[in-house]
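User: Predict the full complex structure for these chains.
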Amino acid sequence: MDFDLTQEHTMVQKMVRDFATKEVAPVIKEFDRKQEAIPWMLPRMGELGILGICFPVCYGGQGMDYISLGLACEELEAVDTALRVVMSVHVGLCGMTLLQWGTEEQKQEFLIPLAKGEKFGCGAFTEPGMGSDLAAMRTHAKRDGNHYILNGEKMWISLASKADFAMITVRTDPNPARPTDGLTTFLVNLHSPGVTRGDIHGKLGVRAGSTGWINFQDVRVPVANRIGEEGEGFKITMSAFDSGRYTVGAGATGLIRAALESSVKYARERTTFGKPIGEHQMIQEKIAKMAQDHEIARLLYLQVGWMKNQGRRSTLQTTYCKKFATEASFEAANQAIQIHGAYGFSDEYDMERYLRNAKGAVIYEGSSEIQVLIQAGYALGERKDKALRCELPAYDAEAWQK
Amino acid sequence: MKIIVCIKQVPDSAAKVVVEGGKVSWGDAPLVINPWDEYAVEAALQQKEALGGTVTAISIGGESAKEAIKHALAMGADDAILISDPALANLDTQAAAQVLAAAIRKAGGVDMAFFGRQAIDGDSGITPSQTARLLGWPALTLSAVIKVDGGNVRVERAIEEGRQIVTAKLPAVFSLVKDFGEPRYPSFMGIRKASRAEIPAWSLGDLGMVAPATVISWPEVMNPPSREVTCEVIGGGSPQEIAEKLADKILAEKIL
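Assistant: Here is the predicted structure of the two-chain assembly.
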């Protein structure tokens, strides 16, 4: 067993860290306060190849492995969650789902511009009246010759107003035998007639990130844009979440690290009762917990990245990673505020932003409660991995460079 | 255009450098490419992009110096050479310049040799000029803008008083300043290439030279004296009152 990162991995880490700290860290507070997305963020991430990090070169990507994706997410969220959210939806929910389930024609047409960062993608599954409860999904599509006619609304969609494409799951069978039947996934061009969309403001966190709604009114989607078969939507959506949740867990690990590093620095500088607060045991306990949680979260996401590299299903391990890291990041931010005292409560420091940003990830891409249900299903033997018609391809260091 | 960029591995600028038992220590901080040398790599790559040719990174050091070299490769340098020899420990700038000049001569047909303005560890900033002197080439130091036209080069030097335009014939040695423009990040393709690169090592024997004698020795090194700082919080009932007290204090201390 080798716990070392490769030289390639450490160089990826440094490159993404340099980008995030040099270019985004100096302006993030300003955009977070204004509740505005940084306008140059998406094109810049595309230009640097970050948006195509883990796709084969033949599909416009950079040909790095899935561990590199996780490392990039950790570095991005150590600066701000909005950066990592881009990876979750553009790479995780949209691109990786295309890589796994798309036909060769679909990869050529859609994955290449996404991986090159020329087009932006998002994932649209949640609706105003449903999140985890797929039986309540109301957006629907009806076949009409070589098209489907889409109607309905998706909500809480990251990059809703910025993306060119949305990976979207809708109901195609109004009376399915089981609630998970009768769902179909499409890659919808968001510039199509009948699509309207907008941003949602007043969010607790990720205020420099774009979150919004997308409405579909008789939107004609070519059959060629259907991902997988009719009725495969549930499986495809779950695959999308296996990828997206991995990026969320890896990113939350970065938020823990940011809270920890800031707390350690402050604990050395700030004195009370004649000594640095880091010499008080109650502060030490908080810092030790953050350090331990960072290590656990890191090991959990690296395990998932390794499994993905091997081409193994990692649904269960991804729930461990996502649930643990996101909950620990919220707690780390909370304790970091406590350590920073009144300064932590002020937006002069980053701690309050970390706390606000951390909360969302405990809810989206499957709330902690949903992760527990999945974990219990596996533990009790009620849930087992079944072979999928299309699996996420294993990383192939040679083939991915061609 | 055959371009060489000379780089040095140094402790990370964020490292806390202290003297312990007469020796400089940077704890467990990582060694990185000298930040000034990143500007040199950027300048070298821009010349290659504009004029065609190759960029070769050269560094003197042990196995660990490969990290700095790999950074240059990941940024886009075509190849690299590590000059490694047990006799090359504790070089002064003159000795380093002799080794670099020998390597540039051995590479053959070099048109431009780029350096950072100084290394953040030794901070002498004279290796580029010394290397130029040994090669008999013009030393175009503190370069901010470089324009090549045929066999001639026009350089804007960023000096304290402003900008100075100089011209010279190639081949020439250049040292780069920040005004040149931000160095690029390594690309993912570059990272992959760098991580797999085999870096050839040249010994002093390969350069046809014996260990150069150092002319400057370094008998002692010490931490800067720590400064005694006391803080005083000036209170008062209103901002006006606080400001008045502060102004009086500043005048009393003869700061103004």
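Chain B has one domain: 2-202.
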